[in-house]
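re the bet — no i am not wrong, look at it urself. input seq straight from the record:
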Amino acid sequence: MKRNKNGASMAALRKLLRVIGRYKLLLVFSVLLSAATVILQLCVPILFGDAIDKVVSRGNVDFEAAGALLLRIGILVALASLGSWAMNLINNRLSLMTVRDIRKSAIRKIQVLPLSFIDSHPSGDVIQRVIADTDQLSEGLLLGFNQLFGGVVMIVVTLVFMFSKDVWISLMVVALTPLSFLVAKFISSRSFSMFQKQTASRGRQTAFVNEIVGGEKVVKAFGREKTTCARFAEMNAELEGYSRRAVFFSSLTNPSTRFVNNIIYALVAMVGALRIISDPLALTVGGLTVLLSYANQYMKPFNDISSVITEMQNALACADRVFELMEAKEETPDAPKELSGVKGNVEIEDVSFSYDKSKSLIEHFSFSAPQGTMAAIVGPTGCGKTTLINLLMRFYDADAGCIRVDGNRTQDVTRHSLRRAYGMVLQETWIMDGTVRDNIAFGKRDATDEEIIRAAKDAHSWEFIRRLPKRLDTVLSESSLSQGQKQLLCITRVMLLRPPMLILDEATSSIDTRTELLIQEAFKKLMQGKTSFIVAHRLSTIRSADRIIVMRDGKIVEQGSHEKLMARNGFYAELYNAQFASTAQ
């Protein structure tokens, strides 16, 4: 449902205030310092007015009294400057701590979001919300605390001082003030929607750049450089259009309110001068000077506020996107039970699942894998092989039916304890920025170097690791290793853990044939007595499997050993013979 822009802005502001409310003490200090600074600043015009009255009369100039007043003015200005400095320090800390909390909450939220959210949102857009949008929010908050908040205090306190000097001129100023509000509200209501569109467009652009940079080799291989640049130019033009309109509307605010405020200032000067002429006892020249100074100080915050509103609208648009991430529906809560002493008896009972509920994928799937079973899952692309792995690991929950491990429903145990029971190697590799040791010991942080080296030797990754400049202490990045070396490191992670169950999803797809044979031998040793699920496209690698599950359109169409399936001369035999024939050619 599309949200009203004003409603979205106010909702984001309320959520932001709840986060800021955690630091009430800092907020109270900021308020007190702001009020004290404003009062000190507003006392200065009164002293100036008194000083002017001391020297304005011909032949009756009191230099001594004027000098004493100027000294007091200097002291007040120094104290006000010190208070303003301390207030800015507190506001900076308050702003940064607030954004720090929001960013930490956003990162924690990503860890408990279901994979369906991650799969349906471009990674670049999620990164944009956590990094760039929170940075924009920080800048808006800082301006808000330093100028918006201080401006409101200035307006309130100035009114009190003005009414103490002259009620009628003060009433005139107050009566004309709503003009500034109306102008600012008219413009800001239009700029917020533009900032929303600008932020969303920037998120799409970030996602696109992230996608292209990650796949630059593919772009070059297919000669898509010009098309990619053209697509980016379109997105850039869209962002430029939204940004131009947002800046245009927001830039109107300050000069428009200044125009209104200058009219008010001129009226104060004119009415005050007429009152001095008509009744010198009601208002002195010094008094008019004080009122003009107050009128200027009273209206100045409106100018500041109107310029801050622009940044605040942008900040609230960014906050709205960040809070949308933080309020996304989390994965279902964990059951309190821990899965322990896993033997590896897996049962899949009448499971149905689909990513898009309007399109069926896996329907009424049942399968049993007793402890020690080596089960291979084969079938054409899109038949549901990887989806079955996602269900086993509970990355997704089944729509119907259940999966049991040692008689325990996976929904009845914690996700962490379930996933700890599996060792998983995927076709897609992931290497984090860190040392070789950190990458191998990712799932076992207390592993010794001896354990890591033994696992590396079992996975046949030690051959290239020992040739690295600092061996286990070599710092890696995503581009440090070849695809095959990355996959060997991922296999080494699992070798180190030696879990009771294994999931191998095309685990050796990027490794040369000789090394693959060696790793298969290592896996055979590792899988002895353990339940393992192997997804394979090369059917020759799973001939020794205890049971081969043949999937087609989300259903099991055949299952059995290699020999039995070949003897049946069904879909599996058709796949095998087709692959063997293509290999022979």
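see?? The first helix runs from residue 5 to 20. told u. also The longest strand covers residues 346-353. so pay up
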